[in-house]
Amino acid sequence: MKYSILSYRNSKLHQQYTLVTLWAKRTMRQQKTRFPLGTHLIVKHWGYSHHGIYAGRGRVIHYSGFAHLFKKRPIEITSLEKFSFGKTIIVQSYTQPKFVGRKVVRRMRSRMHENSYHLIMNNCEHLCTWAITGVESSPQVIRMMNRLTTIGYVSSIMSYMNSMLLTVTTTCFALVLYIKKKLRDKAKHKNIDYLFLKDDKHKNP
User: Fold this and answer.
1) Sorting pLDDT into bands at 50, 70 and 90, what band is 176?
2) For the segment 165-174, what is each residue's pLDDT rounded down to a tens digit?
3) 117 and 181 together in one domain
4) Boundary-marking domain end, from 108, 137, 166
5) Which DSSP string do the residues of 132-201 spell out, in sequence order?
6) Are residues 101 and 154 in the same domain?
7) Domain with 65 in it: what CATH number?
8) Residue 11 and residue 17: Cα distance in Å, rounded?
9) Of 62, 79, 81, 177, whose CB has the highest number of CB atoms within 10 Å?
10) What 3-state class would DSSP assign to 80?
11) Each residue's pLDDT tens digit, 56-88
């Protein structure tokens, strides 16, 4: 099948070829990228970030739970491409790391095949911070907790405001009914007084 230049550029075949080319270029760039041993790598996903330690030769050691949509998976070593899923890799820096380089990689390897992943208590970020600082920590869990706390506070305020609004609304309706009743009572009394006056006039012409 023959294509003109214009029809080829507008064809699905050309679009697919372009996508494959872009993916190949990105993969080649990542393959050429070399991080220092023991570097803490981060890949941002929608709603969370995935963490791993660079082990050399284009490989990353990581807890793969976050990489598989919260499924429980063991600590494993994978290629840089598989770890990143084609996304941009961010390097986490430390001012005073307790362990660096090969020591970090050894610490990660000492826990290889461990299968105790927990989203809150023992996730991929906990593992990486432990390997470098000696202390397990997960700032993204803290951020998530802070967000939930904020949402909780806002929800409680809104519910309080709703209850206050309900009270005000109820009070307003009660006052309206009270005022209407008073006006009706006043109108009745006026009619009675008017009838009395009318009767008196007839009796005393």
Assistant:
1) confident
2) 777 777 777 7
3) no
4) 137
5) HHSS---HHHHHHHHHHHHHHHHHHHHHHHHHHHHHHHHHHHHHHHHHHHHHHHHHHHHHHHHHHHHHHH
6) no
7) 3.90.1720.10
8) 10
9) 62
10) helix
11) 999 999 987 655 555 667 899 999 999 988 899
